[in-house]
Design brief:
The complex is a heterodimer of chains A (271) and B (586).
Chain A lengths: L2 E12 L9 E12 L3 E5 L6 H8 L7 E6 L2 E2 L5 H7 L3 E4 L13 H11 L4 H14 L16 H13 L5 E5 L7 H18 L2 E6 L2 H7 L2 E6 L2 E7 H6 L4 H9 L5 H13 L1
Helix pairs in contact in A: 3-4, 4-5, 5-6
Chain B lengths: L2 H8 L2 H6 L2 H18 L1 H4 L32 H36 L2 H16 L2 H7 L1 H4 L3 H28 L2 H8 L4 H37 L10 H10 L5 H31 L27 E11 L5 E12 L4 E5 L6 H9 L7 E9 L2 E2 L5 H10 L1 E4 L13 H12 L4 H14 L5 H6 L7 H13 L5 E5 L7 H18 L2 E6 L2 H7 L2 E6 L2 E7 H6 L4 H9 L15 H8 L1
Parallel strand pairs in B: 3-8, 3-9, 6-7, 7-8
Antiparallel strand pairs in B: 1-2, 1-4, 4-5, 9-10
Helix pairs in contact in B: 3-5, 3-13, 5-6, 5-9, 5-11, 6-9, 9-11, 10-11, 11-12, 11-13, 12-13, 16-17, 16-19, 17-19, 19-20
Classes of the chains: A alpha/beta (271), B alpha/beta (586).
GO molecular function (chain B): ATP binding; ATP hydrolysis activity
Family (chain B): Belongs to the binding-protein-dependent transport system permease family. Belongs to the ABC transporter superfamily.
Keywords (chain B): ATP-binding, Cell membrane, Membrane, Nucleotide-binding, Transmembrane, Transmembrane helix, Transport
Chain lengths: 271, 586
């Protein structure tokens, strides 16, 4: 398997708030790699820096140290023009399906915009939009409608379709199902896995929920306070982790089985 | 959603504007005035400065002067029409300069980095420090008394207002995820500004424009009234000034220009207000106001379900824009026995939170309880006055919310808020209350109660804040604790601790807990019984063990099947073939 994305010793520092406030380092040298067609799950709690990893891969946050390489090229400090070219290959699905779609544009406009910018003709873009809507399981007439006419799960499908529009090689999924209901959550995850099988796209999948991570990931990295504490195959990390933090995380997540949950609770309280 | 409601919301702002009598009236007045100004050469033969010495202070209609002559023998009607031109040109120059400078620098200053913003901010702050009217008068030698040049300067002086408006809107929209998504899509900044940012800015700017035009006209007239600038330019201000000196002889000379100026500026302000309603308000008002039914269940009914809290056939409805009532909870029946924990589960929109709010008596004012009963320890809660309810809430029912942070007042210390709550429930001295609160904070597992007591909400973590709220909730030793998604906003490790705390407190105080949640893991962890809700009704109730082992209702089964558990581990290897990628998607 060839490595698609390689992040090494990534450091990100946010400027402190207020006058002469000290800058605050949120990532202290994070290294990870995503192979072609692979899903790397990144799991961590709020404030662990997991979202910052995704944002610096996307170029939305400037790293203060380390490198980000995509298909062998250093894109750590890619300029605007380079970024625009990278947009064909790296895409994103955000957590909040409500604020990630411009409420003033129709679904068709939202989906065709990146295509048109990349130089597609109008008719070509229209065909691709129809194809994309079909791919994410939305009706064809959806392109005439506005985001507010759709439910959270459907909006997230639109966001997924937008990410797939330029046929990227890597999609950064930042908590894509956290804002969704249980049944919708499962369907959207299945859709993501299905698309991956068909297109060979790789996911950098960021979530706080181990169960979600387990469902989509081939490999998992656990991040805690800006450091990756453990990386390994999803099966091992999510069932028999070695690092104490991962163990705590695993035992803290309640399972939907009263007897099993009682056992876990006492195991956790012993820990 | 029904097609009619979709249509109502799709209605364009322009059509909404046309339906507003205020907008139609003010806009037609303005159009009329502008038309009069444009048609001036057709409407009068007299020039604005043409003097007829016979017509000094001439009456209405004399010497061919429609509205009479002024004290210099000029045609008042002709001067009025020419003044309209002056006003319109002033408004156009003033607003266009202000908009051009303000919007451009607002977009640039708001969208680009801090350094650019520092520069624009400094420049506009400097402009704002200039005393406007005074500066215009001082600059008269430079502008040579030409009102057009004066309006250019005034436009510059108006631009900081527009700059600030646009800059704030841009800063707000810049952090929206869809702007991030557009950047990731490779859109150039120009296109993002035009497509995603400017659309948000458009509405408020249109509204501000109406007011800018009004103030441009007012300032031009004001300067002319003061006699600053060329005296040959016909202007409402100059006319008012002359009429003013002639007030005792010919009061009408003062009336006409004032009336015209008043109509123009008032129309602009009213049109601005109507624009605001059309572009920003946009919310359809209920055509029929539904008065909250003062529904009172009959006292004779014997509760068919026994328990501490019994909810029977409860229905809650909300008025829709068309005035009809739409039920969000339709016939919920459930009971919570003393000391037990009931989990109320369902997806968003199932009515679980509405049911909990009804039991707390904190439904929003537009909510209507159409039928049913809620009894606590045999006492009917529906129909109680706010004062009676407050007594119940302080001591018998307590509440733990989903968002701990937004339920603490950021301007008071944690301790002060808890003391206030404790003293409201049971009157006691400040010192006693303080002791009690410190004991409570220690009880809910806060390591350093003294320090937390003195802290402000932003100084403590989300998990701590939830502990503080729980401490406040159990202060009155309630019979029933209603917790609405108490751990949803928290990390899993913190969630586990909070659940432990709730379980512990419940045992200690022997209180009943009604736990609203969407998470079956939480239910399995803490609840003795479960009620599953869907679309406003309870579809299944049972003990936790039974319900998880053998769900009876298909919906419950579907929910349980959707849970991602250990079996949901992904097993297929990564798709490495690049060929599949090419054929499928390119």
């Amino acid at each position: 398997m060839t490595t698609l994305l390689e992040v090494s010793e990534l450091r990100v520092t946010y400027p402190g708030r207020g006058f002469r406030a000290r800058p605050h380092e949120v990532l202290h040298g994070v290294s990870l790699a995503v192979g072609q067609g692979e899903t790397l799950g990144v799991v961590g709690e709020s404030g662990s820096g997991k979202t910052t990893i995704g944002r610096s891969v996307l170029g939305l946050v400037p790293p203060s140290g380390g490198t980000v390489r995509f298909q062998g090229n250093d894109i750590t400090h890619a300029g605007r023009k380079e970024r625009r070219a990278l947009a064909r290959d790296i895409q994103v699905v955000f957590q909040d399906p409500y604020s990630s779609l411009n409420p003033a544009l129709t679904i068709g406009d939202i989906l065709s915009e990146p295509l048109v910018v990349q130089g597609a003709a109008a008719g070509e873009a229209r065909n691709r939009v129809a194809e994309l809507l079909d791919q994410v399981g939305l009706p064809k007439d959806a392109s005439q409608r506005l985001p507010r006419e759709f439910s959270g799960g459907q909006r997230q499908r639109v966001a997924i379709a937008r990410a797939l529009a330029p046929a990227p090689r890597l999609v950064v999924c930042d908590e894509p199902v956290s804002a969704l209901d249980l049944t919708t959550q499962a369907r959207v995850l299945d859709l993501l896995v299905d698309i991956q099988r068909r297109t060979g796209v790789a996911y950098l999948f960021i979530s706080h929920d181990l169960a979600v991570i387990r469902h989509v990931s081939h490999r998992v990295s656990v991040i805690h306070r800006g450091d990756i504490v453990e990386t390994g195959p999803a099966g091992e990390i999510t069932t028999a982790p070695e690092h104490p933090y991962t163990q705590r995380l695993l035992l803290a997540a309640p399972v939907a089985d009263p007897a099993e949950q009682r056992r876990r609770r006492s195991a956790r309280q012993r820990l | 959603m029904s097609p009619s409601s979709t249509e109502a919301r799709r209605r364009s702002p322009l059509r909404r504007l046309l339906a507003d009598p205020q907008a139609v009236l003010s806009a037609s007045l303005l159009v009329l005035v502008v038309l009069l100004g444009l048609l001036t050469p057709l409407l009068t033969d007299h020039g604005p400065n043409q003097v007829n010495l016979d017509a000094i202070n001439a009456g209405v209609g004399e010497h061919g002067y429609l509205l009479g002559g002024d004290k210099s023998g000029r045609d008042i009607f002709a001067r009025l029409l020419h003044s309209i031109d002056t006003s319109v040109v002033s408004a156009l120059i003033g607003t266009s300069i202000a908009l051009a400078i303000g919007i451009t620098s607002g977009l640039v200053g708001g969208y680009f980095g801090r350094r650019t913003r520092a520069v624009t901010e400094w420049v506009f702050n400097l402009v704002m420090t200039f005393p406007g009217l005074l500066l215009l008068i001082i600059l008269m030698p430079v502008t040579k008394g030409d009102y057009k040049a004066t309006m250019v300067v005034f436009g510059v002086l108006l631009s900081p207002g527009i700059y600030r408006l646009v800059r704030n809107l841009v800063l707000g929209v810049k952090n929206e995820l869809y702007v991030d998504a557009a950047r990731v899509s490779g859109l150039p900044d120009r296109r993002i500004l035009r497509r995603h940012v400017f659309t948000v800015v458009r509405g408020p700017v249109i509204i501000a424009t109406a007011f800018l035009a009004g103030s441009s006209i007012a300032v031009q007239s004001g300067l002319a009234f003061l006699g600053v600038g060329s005296s040959t330019v016909p202007s409402f201000g100059a006319m008012i000034s002359e009429g003013f000196t002639n007030l005792y002889e010919e009061p009408q000379q003062f009336l006409w220009p004032s009336l015209a100026l008043g109509i123009i500026t008032a129309s602009l302000v009213l049109l601005g207000n109507a624009l605001r309603d059309a572009l920003e308000g946009g919310r359809p008002k209920p055509s029929r106001i539904v008065t909250a039914t003062s529904y009172r269940p009959s006292a004779t009914e014997v509760p068919s379900v026994a328990g501490l809290l019994t909810v029977e056939d409860l229905a809650i409805a909300y008025p829709t824009p068309t005035g009809e009532l739409k039920e969000v909870v339709s016939g919920v029946t459930l009971s919570v026995a003393a000391g037990e924990t009931l989990g109320l589960v369902g997806e968003s929109g199932s009515g679980k939170t509405q049911t909990a709010f009804a039991a707390l008596g904190v439904l929003p004012p537009e909510a209507v309880v159409t039928r049913g009963s809620i009894r606590l320890d045999g006492r009917e809660l529906l129909g109680l006055s706010e004062r009676e309810l407050r007594a119940v809430r302080g001591t018998s029912i307590a509440y733990v919310p989903q968002e701990p942070m937004s339920n603490l007042d950021p301007s008071c210390t944690v301790g002060a808020q808890l003391v206030e709550g404790v003293r409201a429930a049971t009157p006691m001295s400040g010192r006693e209350a303080r002791e009690r609160v410190l004991a409570l904070l220690a009880r809910v597992g806060i390591p350093d109660p003294e320090r937390t007591f003195r802290s402000y909400p932003h100084q403590i973590s989300g998990g701590m804040a939830q502990r503080v709220l729980i401490a406040g909730a159990v202060a009155g030793r309630p019979l029933l604790l209603i917790a609405d998604e108490p751990t949803t906003a928290l990390d899993v490790t913190v969630q586990a601790e909070i659940l432990d705390l709730l379980r512990d407190l419940q045992k200690d105080l022997n209180m009943a807990v009604l736990l609203v949640t969407h998470n079956f893991g939480v239910v399995a962890d803490i609840c003795g019984r479960v009620a599953v809700m869907r679309e406003g009704t309870v579809v299944e109730t049972g003990t936790t063990d039974d319900l998880f082992a053998a769900p009876r209702h298909p919906y419950t089964r579907k929910l349980l099947d959707s849970i991602l558990d250990e079996t949901a581990l992904r097993t297929d290897p990564p798709t490495a073939s690049a060929g599949a990628l090419e054929t499928e998607t390119r």
